[in-house]
User: Fold SulP family inorganic anion transporter from Methylobacillus methanolivorans.
Amino acid sequence: MSNAVSKGLNLSQIKTNALSGLTTALAMVPETIAFAFVAHVSPLTGLYASVIVSFITSAFGGRPGMISGAAGSLAVVMTALVVQHGVEYLFAAVVLMGILQVLFGVARMGKYIRMVPYPVMLGFVNGLAMVIFFAQFNHFKVVAGDGSLQWLSGPLLYTMLGLVALTMVIIYLLPRMTKVVPSALAAIVLVSVAVAGFGLETKTVGDLGSIAGGLPSFHIPSVPFDLETLKIVFPYSLILAAIGLIETLLTLNLVDEMTNTRGQPNRESMAQGAANVATGMFSGMGGCAMIGQTMINMNAGGLHRLSGIAMSAFLLSFILFASHWIEMIPLAALIGVIFVMALKTFEWGSFRLFGKVPRPDIFVGILVALITLFSDLAVAVLIGVIVSALVFAWEHAKQVSASTVVDESGRKVYVLKGSVFFASIANFQALFTPHDDPAQVVVDFAQAKVVDHSALAAIDALAERYAQQGKQLSLKHLSPDCRALLSQAKDLVEVNLLEDPTYPVADDKLG
Assistant:
């Protein structure tokens, strides 16, 4: 305790972060078990992953307060591997996934996540909030006699809905009276006591499967260490590593914005990679940041590393010592906590952006949210970034323009403005009228920038058009890179070492 205080935590903060860790651990149990079933592995395989990944990333990662564990976005990818090749190949894939994530962090590539546009970030948050919210409805189903899932009905359904509503009311109203205990934790305890006191019949955590177990033991994946195994697991490891990093680093960005602080994406990538290597060696299914549990933790006041470490310790204690009591907790109480978290995670303010921001930004945000909801997180973010880049290129392409003047020598001067690149070439070429221009023409690039090789090819083509008309073309204020890469128009450039810009051009020929 004294060590924690020496690092900036006082007794009140220690209590707050410990209780937030307990609250998050309770909410983690049903989520982790559900994701384990999705991946076709045992509940303990998911719980061990959440214990190990949370502890390592919280203790050594780059974002205090962020919670990591066995995530649904990873579980859906694991399913095919487990079904086709068995759980041992999953453990091997998780180890390789971790190695790839460590290499990503060592290469210091985490900074590139900050290139994700805000509309994509907004769509990611809203999409995941909806995924988490709607996923809870699976708990309102039971297995029928023929093995199919059927919706609850009658008293069981009404009791569960009432308990969910009671949980949410307590979470919203309790902070108005006291903040001594996190409202989510108080709601779980009060609803559990009410169910036990009144003898209500309702689904409990134990209905999902037993969480009783011992300490995870070291276990090298039982797979052949050969090229054939690598061919099987590498595609899965690559996809898992990418999805895990995307979800983690976007969640890190979100926490940065909420706390007005700055996390360390490369450090977080290496910590997550190390956590997954360890998890695969201890029979865990691997994991990444979980936006839902992170929001529960932060809403309960868990802003320090201690909260994640406490969450891991409590979750392990549930497995070792308190499984009987945890299995008695009504699922409705945990569903209510997760409903509140999902509602708070969703950016309701995004609806106020309609009519106030460009329509392409609105489209990108909705697109990413829908793809996240109905398909895949990584695909959603990738498509969102691509669409945003194309929209940016299209809008930027329309900004290239030129004004014309006649200089003291009687030459017609095109004063170019904007960026000349692959998307603006058509507009660039349309600015010039070689057939109608006088015998001497100057193109001044002082207020323009030549970005790529496509722009250089367009400049060469322009020179060719004027040459075919028998007219003299001069080019001014081009950077040395531009001059070096021009072919047809190289001899037409007027060099002024004092005035010419020095920006580089994206082209492999200069490498």
